[in-house]
Amino acid sequence: MSDPRPNYITPAGYSALKAEYDRLFGTERPALVDTIAWAAGNGDRSENGDYIYGRKRLREIDRRLGFLARRMKAAKVVDPAAQTDRTRVWFGASVTIADEDDNHRALTLVGDDEADASQGRIGWNAPLARALRGAAVGDLRRVMLPAGEKEFEVMGIEYRD
């Protein structure tokens, strides 16, 4: 069963998925197949570390390639620079929010496949991103976080070109 939500992704995020796919399929996998073939030719495979590790790594690469192929097929590339309503928080928006203690945070709403909290990029379907969708500057939004419910005020919205 497929996920009914669209897999929104920025052009840069899609390029990163495609680059990883191309690297795995075009470089790592062929080199690994060569290593496995060489190791298989060395005789007893039951105690051949190169062969055993190579087969295990090949399964991991094939699983990752399948995952990447499914995600790219389901991807709906959305360019934040093309957003017409720049007064509200939508996909690709860079948002500055403040909590009850006036702590400011800058976040960018990106596709779930390109989320990286340490870089301030949160996935489109994350609880905080869902709470911020459609908000304008000055709006207050409540969100349930692991640490409990918090209220945030939208301080600024920007769409980078």
Give the topology, please.
Blueprint lengths: L6 E3 L1 H30 L8 H26 E3 L16 E5 L5 E7 L10 E3 L3 H6 L7 E6 L2 E11 L3
Parallel strand pairs: 1-2, 4-5
Antiparallel strand pairs: 3-4, 3-7, 6-7
Helix pairs in contact: 1-2
Fold and architecture overview:
Keywords: DNA-binding, Elongation factor, Protein biosynthesis, Transcription, Transcription regulation. Belongs to the GreA/GreB family. GreB subfamily. The protein is α/β, with parallel strands linked by helices and 161 residues long. It folds into two domains: 7-74, Helix Hairpins, CATH 1.10.287.180; 80-158, Transcription elongation factor, GreA/GreB, C-terminal domain (Chitinase A, domain 3). It is 39% helix and 24% strand. The protein has three helices and seven strands; from the N terminus they run E-H-H-E-E-E-E-H-E-E. The strands form two sheets. A five-stranded mixed β-sheet has the order 5-4-3-7-6. Strand 6 (140-145) and strand 7 (148-158) form a beta hairpin. The longest helix is centred in the N-terminal third of the chain and has 30 residues, at 11-40. The radius of gyration is 22 Å and the shape is elongated. The model has no long low-confidence stretch (mean pLDDT 91).
